[in-house]
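Example 9 (inverse folding). The structure is encoded as follows.
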């Protein structure tokens, strides 16, 4: 996904004079050739993430379209005040592109993990949030984000589904069933499909989670919902509630656990097991919830 992002932006820089890239050492070298061609629009500020977002806000105020990239905690958590004030309060746009996600690369430890990123951005109005599950979805989502003016968060992952799905902003029906709906967000889809094999449930897929497709969830026809997200469990629970604000419904949220901090390193797959995001864990949750 990250390579697709870099390739797409490097090409776009040659054709759109509004675009500017701002990094804080992470992926700096990936834009070396683009920096040679566009030295005033490919900027690296060093390990100064607050300055990175502040520079992006300044560029946006001049009419530029900044693209800001780093590991998730360095892009969303560390410079959150600048995101809130220099982008949101000033009502200017940018494209924030993260990598690493919740625990994609646990060998780096907790410093490089940010499962609360989408929940944190949810405290600010006006953000579009894309969580692609395949590089082809990145290629489909990114051009519109670059060409637009709004505030967009693109959450890349080193983990991906086997198959890409249409990145339309609407939920995609991947499988139909009669007993309930399982909504899989981004790179959780393959595990959800394997976990629900043989279970009589509808599986919806989302590569865009904000704005939330309330109509698409309602159209699935079930009021028993299992929500599977690759970040903090229940991050989109309030959106599910909004979709069914006039109808009694049940929700079970699966995601990164909120009741403990995992201090182990290990592998991403081992972290999946700890959080119940592996195939067996999701299957058990769906079975018990719909029993």
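The amino acid assigned to each position is listed next.
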């Amino acid at each position: 996904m990250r390579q697709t992002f870099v390739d797409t932006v490097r090409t776009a820089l040659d054709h759109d004079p509004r675009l500017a890239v701002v990094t804080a050492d992470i992926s700096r070298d990936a834009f070396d050739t683009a920096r040679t061609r566009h030295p005033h629009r490919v900027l690296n500020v060093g390990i100064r993430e607050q300055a990175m977002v502040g520079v992006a806000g300044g560029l946006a105020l001049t009419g530029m379209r900044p693209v800001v990239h780093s590991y998730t905690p360095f892009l969303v958590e560390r410079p959150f005040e600048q995101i809130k004030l220099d982008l949101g309060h000033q009502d200017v746009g940018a494209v924030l592109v993260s990598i690493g996600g919740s625990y994609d690369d646990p060998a780096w430890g907790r410093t490089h993990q940010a499962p609360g990123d989408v929940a944190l951005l949810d405290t600010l109005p006006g953000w579009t949030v894309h969580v692609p599950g395949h590089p082809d979805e990145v290629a489909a989502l990114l051009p519109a984000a670059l060409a637009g003016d709004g505030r967009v968060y693109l959450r890349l992952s080193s983990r991906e589904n086997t198959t890409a799905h249409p990145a339309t902003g609407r939920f995609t029906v991947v499988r139909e069933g009669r007993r309930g709906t399982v909504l899989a967000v981004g790179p959780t889809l393959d595990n959800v499909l394997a976990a629900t094999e043989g279970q009589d449930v509808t599986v919806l897929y989302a590569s865009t989670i904000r704005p939330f497709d309330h109509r698409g969830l309602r159209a699935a026809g079930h009021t028993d919902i299992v929500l599977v997200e690759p970040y903090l469990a229940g991050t989109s629970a309030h959106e599910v509630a909004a979709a069914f604000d006039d109808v009694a419904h049940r929700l079970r949220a699966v995601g990164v656990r909120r009741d403990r901090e995992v201090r182990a390193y290990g592998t991403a797959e081992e972290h999946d097991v700890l959080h119940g995001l592996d195939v067996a864990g999701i299957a058990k949750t769906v079975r018990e919830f719909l029993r």
